[in-house]
């Protein structure tokens, strides 16, 4: 029995070392709290430890993400899952940076398939689009970690209104990476509120002094003070011969089908925040279609008529 345990431990140490050395920490899109090279080279021979190590060495992440078609989303979610497994096996809590909505959605779906793991998402307010995910063993991740913060950016925007892009551009112009910044919430003449990682609060407060041509001042605010109003929407129904994006979106945005095809060709149409490349992409309930300069459209309930057509509920964001 002792000899068997020694051989097993030796094999596990080799597997762990190979895994660590083959995955150097080069990705700067995730905020890890520990170095990948510190993966335990002398694992405890417990059933839980063996399970997690075997999963990590086998690298069966692809099985969890077999339904993710977008390559970029696949790679982002894959990194999140690898981080989650390390967090669970080490019984510590690790965090992602701010994730885009499609990566966020697929990550949370995949994380629910992993045993002995808890995942918590935080964006600052209920309708936040960009969120961070904290993962860890349920015994360790017992409360929401303090991984997001909020700033108020104020200035005299009454005569020089600034757009979402103006605020975001000014923030990124200080050298902060996009994945360190969450949602930017416009406040009209008051300015804007921004969600950001806590460790960059002081830097941004001393580095950002102007948005567009408007001098600004920054103040840290509690998350409870985030002033967000749910977007106004208008719902209506349409009957189409197919559930293709060119048919439904043209009806939703009230533009010709040929015009929408041109917008797709120019890269101006996104489905669930991912650029659309094919006119024939099929839509389903819950999908979000956005068109540059036209706004955003959510696909509601889809039913089939007696004549084989599609009766579709469309929710237009105003």
UniProtKB/TrEMBL annotation:
Give the signal peptide, or none. 1-18
Q: Which PANTHER family match?
A: MITOCHONDRIAL TRANSCRIPTION RESCUE FACTOR 1
What GO annotations for molecular function exist for this entry?
RNA binding
Tell me where in this chain the RNA-binding S4 domain is found.
243-303
InterPro entries in the cross-refs: Nucleotide-bd_a/b_plait_sf, PSII_S4, RqcP2_RBD, S4_RNA-bd, S4_RNA-bd_sf
Keyword annotations of the record: RNA-binding, Signal
**Which Pfam family would be a valid example here?**
YlmH_RBD
The organism sits in which domain of life?
Eukaryota
Name of the featured protein: RNA-binding S4 domain-containing protein
Q: Is Amino-acid biosynthesis given among the entry's keywords? A: no
Q: Which NCBIfam families match?
A: PS_II_S4
């Amino acid at each position: 029995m002792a000899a068997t345990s020694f051989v097993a431990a030796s094999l596990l140490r080799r597997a762990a070392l190979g895994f660590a050395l083959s995955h150097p920490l080069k990705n700067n899109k995730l905020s890890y709290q520990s170095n990948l090279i510190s993966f335990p080279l002398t694992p405890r021979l417990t059933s839980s430890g063996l399970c997690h190590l075997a999963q990590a060495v086998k690298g069966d992440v692809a099985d969890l993400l077999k339904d993710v078609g977008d390559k970029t989303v696949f790679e982002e979610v894959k990194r999140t899952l690898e981080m989650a497994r390390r967090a669970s096996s080490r019984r510590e809590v690790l965090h992602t940076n701010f994730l885009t909505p499609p990566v966020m959605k697929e990550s949370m779906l995949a994380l629910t398939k992993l045993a002995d793991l808890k995942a918590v998402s935080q964006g600052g307010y209920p309708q936040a689009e960009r969120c961070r995910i904290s993962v860890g063993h349920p015994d360790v991740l017992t409360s929401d970690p303090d991984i997001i913060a909020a700033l108020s950016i104020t200035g005299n925007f009454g005569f020089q209104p600034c757009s979402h892009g103006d605020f975001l551009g000014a923030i990124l112009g200080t050298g902060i990476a996009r994945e360190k910044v969450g949602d930017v919430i416009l406040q009209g003449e008051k300015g804007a509120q921004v969600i950001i990682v806590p460790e960059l609060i002081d830097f941004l407060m001393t580095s950002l002094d102007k948005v567009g041509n408007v001098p600004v001042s920054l103040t840290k605010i509690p998350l409870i003070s985030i002033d967000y109003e749910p977007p106004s929407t208008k719902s209506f129904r349409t009957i189409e011969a197919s559930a293709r994006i060119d048919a439904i979106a043209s009806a939703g945005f009230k533009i010709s089908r040929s015009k929408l095809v041109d917008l797709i060709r120019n890269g101006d149409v996104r489905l669930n925040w991912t650029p659309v490349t094919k006119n024939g992409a099929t839509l389903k309930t819950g999908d979000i279609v956005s068109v540059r300069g036209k706004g955003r459209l959510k696909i509601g309930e889809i039913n089939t008529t007696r004549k084989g057509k599609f009766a579709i509920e469309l929710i237009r964001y105003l």
